[in-house]
Amino acid sequence: MSKKSKKKNKDAHEPASDSKGKQVQSQEANQKLGKKEYQAELFKLQVELVKLQDWVKKTGARIVIIFEGRDAAGKGGIIKRILERVSPRVFRLVALPAPTERQKTQIYAQRYVEQLPAGGEIVIFDRSWYNRAGVEHVMGFCTEGEYKQFLKGCPPFENILINNGIILLKYWLDVSEQEQHKRFLARIQDPSKRWKLSPMDLESHRRWYDYSRARNAMLAATDTATAPWCIVPSDDKKRARLNCIADILSRIPYEEVPYTPPKLPGRQKAKGYQGPKLKHQVVPQRW
Q1: Deepest of 93, 102, 169, 205, by most Cβ within 10 A of its Cβ?
Q2: pLDDT tens for residues 224-282?
Q3: Would you place residue 173 in the very low, low, confident or very high pLDDT band (cuts 50, 70, 90)?
Q4: Rounded to whole angstroms, how far apart are CA atoms 218 and 27?
Q5: CA–CA separation, 25 and 21 (whole Å)
Q6: What gap in Å lies between CA 131 and CA 249, rounded to an integer?
């Protein structure tokens, strides 16, 4: 992205400011973002993600984007919009299940290291090695010694990734207590969302302050100059998606790769081709 494009993109997503300062920002934050405006801004950002994709393929860049946050904070919604118009061969989502018995005997970061990008790839972690600082610590899935060792060892580990040329971005989605409660109730009531509410989610609802303490300790120990945390206010889902994607684009020094539209070749001649005589099942046209 050129410096001019970056400035234009940045300005488009910065809150307005005048003599009233914070009051104007607060008023804008309370205004509901219209669907048409949201869709238009999202499309512009998704076009930029395609440009980023082309640059990553051309340069062989390696990018890791980590999304963390409480349950129902909106991680899945942001990730979905990032992946909507790009190639899965470049953008790869990693959402690892609970470790197997074998993986529990390995070095803690080992199964995450296996997922790191090769040249020309962007890997998005929907939760990451920071599980140890969150759910594993709060729910007692690791020892106190393992937890403290992680907090101490995480910054040097991330420095190794960065020193080896990986661009590392870390985002914490910050949802309020009231909004999380509202979203949990919506999941219970909506048959299409019930699968999103696990027993672990219910426990996280109960242990709000245990998770708050764990988050604070994690940010204090791992928010470094080389690998800073970026906080995304996520009570407003639409704004969270736009602001987060815009921030990702602003932190990667990509440039637009020139595109030459291809010319479609003409169709070949049929040369006696006939359709198959076998009768196949056709999907019923219900709409």
Answers
A1: 169
A2: 999 999 999 999 999 999 999 999 999 999 999 999 999 999 999 999 999 888 888 89
A3: very high
A4: 32
A5: 7
A6: 26
241 token code pair: 């998606």
Token pair 């914490």 is found at 172
CA angle, residues 64, 66, 72, in degrees to nearest 5: 155
Mean pLDDT of the chain: 91
Which residue's structure tokens are 């197997």?
Answer: 100
The candidate with the shortest Cα–Cα distance to 201, out of 65, 50, 76, is: 76
Q: Where are the alpha helices (DSSP H) in 164-236?
A: 177-189, 199-206, 208-222
Asked whether the beta carbons of 120 and 90 are under 8 A apart, the reply is: yes
Rounded distance between C-alpha atoms, residue 54 and residue 255, angstroms: 9
Strand partners, 169: 65
Looking at the DSSP bridge assignments, the partners of residue 166 are: 62
CA distance 40 to 31: 17
- Please tell me the class of the 3-13+32-250 domain: alpha beta
Within 8 A by CB and 6+ apart from 109, the residues are 129, 157
- Annotated domain spans of the chain: 3-13+32-250
What is the spatial distance between Cα 102 and Cα 100, in angstroms, rounded to a whole number? Answer: 5
The model's pTM: 0.87
